[in-house]
């Protein structure tokens, strides 16, 4: 399961002028599952959500006007940076490489003075604290650099992140289908070769 089509705005909130920088940490040609974007999708506003089994468990529901728009991607090279704003629909392509894991990072930027939610100032999902991260740093110069920057804090709006009430039915259906496919693949892989 790769990252489904989504807009970052619902996950970060604050300002739609938030810009993501997606950076592959090695060469990432199309078959290794880079990001792809839907051109012009930022003009459709904040799109509705539906359930998806992939990372985030949410996907953007595309309006008719975007249904036939072609996804745009690239054979990325180490050092490339893909920049796009928080309303642009993007997704990951499947990684078809038999052995290579695709590694990438996301850094997000916004103009000074724009609103942001508190979680954007914490390490991802608060899995670590800044104190943990800064332990061992030799300089404090860049630590907590945002504290003297200009921004306003706005509360997290759960309704922007909530899935529609019927999402459990869809989640269950997708989970069963996924399990069935996985088991079928597993069985066909572990079946003894009749020529052995
Ligand atoms: O790298 C990925 O697969 C998805 C990254 C992304 O879109 C995100 O973190 O919002
Ligand atoms: Fe994203």
Tell me about this structure.
By secondary structure, the protein is α+β, with helices and mostly antiparallel strands. The chain has one domain. It is built from five helices and nine strands; from the N terminus they run αββββαββββαβαα. A hairpin with a 6-residue loop joins strand 3 and strand 4 (58-60). It is globular. Bound molecules: 2-oxoglutaric acid and fe (ii) ion.
At a glance:
This protein is an alpha+beta fold and 196 residues long. The chain has helices at 9-12, 64-67, 130-134, 158-161, 167-190; strands at 19-24, 35-37, 49-51, 58-60, 82-85, 90-92, 104-109, 115-116, 152-153.
Count of strand segments: 9
Global Rg: 20 Å
Hetero compounds = 2-oxoglutaric acid, fe (ii) ion
Strand order of the largest sheet: 5-1-7
Main beta-sheet strand count, sense and barrel state: 3 strands, antiparallel
Mean pLDDT: 93
How many structural domains in the coordinates?
1
Which of globular, elongated, flat, extended, rod-shaped describes the shape? globular
Class from helix and strand fractions: alpha+beta
The N- and C-terminal alpha carbons lie at a distance of 33 Å
Task: List unreliable stretches of 5+ residues.
Answer: none
Number of helices: 5
Please indicate the percent range of residues in DSSP E strands (runs of 2 or more).
15-25%
N-to-C order of helices and strands:
HEEEEHEEEEHEHH
What is the helical fraction, as a range of percent? 10-25%
Question: Which structural traits does this protein have?
Answer:
196 residues, alpha+beta, two-stranded antiparallel sheet, globular, binds 2-oxoglutaric acid, binds fe (ii) ion
